[in-house]
């Protein structure tokens, strides 16, 4: 169920995509799920890298395609969970035990979340990234489910992104 609240931005570079992610990391409360959908090369991992760095992750952030889940310590004593559900296309979502990660001490980004949608919480922030040209990416953000808190996060993020792009 989509809330109807949606925003779109054009990113002109990997760095701009990462700056947008940095802004979101500064706003979103821990325990919130952010999903990242898009073709290979659309910027999902670049977004995750900017998000994780903003949380103070010191290790290199790579897509956890083969391990499915990587968890990194964040500066605030919480952790950053980066999931890649691509390998779960044929099933196995229940083996990930996503509900055990949905706690107030984790920031959660999930690539290819459509393969585990039945495991997602009642509401989340869905990001769709698409390739426009070699350097340009369209980023579409939408609240899924009923959540006035997430709608507030999306509004704050939209204002922050516009300030960054000025």
TrEMBL record:
Keywords for this protein: ATP-binding, Cytoplasm, Magnesium, Metal-binding, Nucleotide-binding, Transferase, tRNA processing
Keyword Transferase carried by entry: yes
Example of a GO cellular component annotation carried by this entry: cytoplasm
InterPro entries, per the entry: P-loop_NTPase (IPR027417), T6A_TsaE (IPR003442)
Record keyword Magnesium present: yes
One annotated GO biological process: tRNA threonylcarbamoyladenosine modification
Compartments, record wording: Cytoplasm
Protein name: tRNA threonylcarbamoyladenosine biosynthesis protein TsaE
């Amino acid at each position: 169920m989509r809330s109807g609240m949606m925003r779109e931005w054009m990113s002109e570079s990997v760095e701009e995509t990462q700056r947008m992610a940095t802004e979101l990391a500064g706003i979103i409360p821990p325990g919130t799920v952010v999903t990242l959908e898009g073709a290979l090369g659309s910027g999902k991992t670049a977004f995750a890298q900017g998000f994780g760095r903003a949380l103070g992750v010191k290790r290199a952030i790579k897509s956890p395609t083969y391990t499915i889940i990587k968890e990194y310590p964040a500066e605030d004593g919480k952790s950053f969970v980066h999931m890649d559900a691509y390998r779960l296309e044929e099933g196995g979502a229940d083996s990930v035990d996503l509900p055990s990660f949905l706690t107030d001490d984790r920031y959660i980004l999930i690539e290819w979340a459509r393969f585990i949608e039945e495991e997602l919480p009642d509401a989340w922030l869905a990001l769709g990234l698409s390739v426009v040209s070699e350097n340009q990416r369209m980023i579409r953000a939408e609240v899924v489910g009923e959540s006035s808190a997430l709608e507030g996060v999306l509004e704050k993020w939209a204002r922050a992104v516009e300030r960054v792009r000025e």
